[in-house]
Structure formats: structure tokens, C-alpha cells
Amino acid sequence: MWIFTTFGFFSVVEHRSDRSLLMVRGRWQEQMTCLSRALLAHNSGKAITEMVTPEGDYPYRITVKRTVFAKFMANLLLTTPSYTNFKSAVAKQAEGSPYPGDRAYLEGLHNVWAAMREVEPSRMPGVKKASSRQGRGRAAQ
Fold it and tell me: Where are the domains of the chain?
């Protein structure tokens, strides 16, 4: 599962040897540090395992209990978003940041948005558009 937040991009997968754990992977050390701090705060300071795997496709990894991460994500959804436009919220955060990775992350978000827009069914040749009678947010039958 890919997760995009205002503080970073993370890939979350099941741990290879323990189904009760998740491996949260990231590409930017600063984003993983931010996530680690948030997880520790949410988990009452209980330890999580951090690893650096420069040979991996994601060089930074955190091992965390599945239940802890699920509660953390639920809390994140309850307390955020406090914005009406995700990319704008990230842009506002990147404006004051001395870390150039924040601007690179924002550019990456725009690229992902554009790529996903291109595979939107209404934009694909030969795919019938949904009827305008269908309510907003309802899936085509």
C-alpha cells in the first residue's frame, strides 16, 4: 500500500517473517524520521525498529506492529486533513522548509497526480464516460 501524507510518501507491506508486523518503507530519511517520531509519540514511546537498507529499493525501513500502525493511521485521519487541497497543503509546508527534499516531494506528488489522471477511465480511448445522471462519487455500474 502506498501512503502519501503531508509529511511523506511511504510503502507499507507485511513483514516477511511475522504477519503481526508491518514494514513501512521510505525513500527520504527526513520523512522516515518524521514518521518514526509520530509513531513513537502515538505508541507511548515504545520502541519500533528502524533500519537503513541502502541496497533496497526503499533505503529506510521501520518495523511496527500492525495494530499500532492501524491505530496511528486512524488517528491521522481523525486529526487531519485540515486542508481542502492536498497538494496545496504540501506546497505551503515546502515553502518554508530548508530541506530541498520537500520541494522534490511536491514535484513528485504532481507527477503522480498527472499519471493517475491519465489512466482515469474517462480519459482512456474507447472507454465510455459515466452517465451524468449518476451522483458524484458513485461508481459506474
Answer: 2-79, 86-123
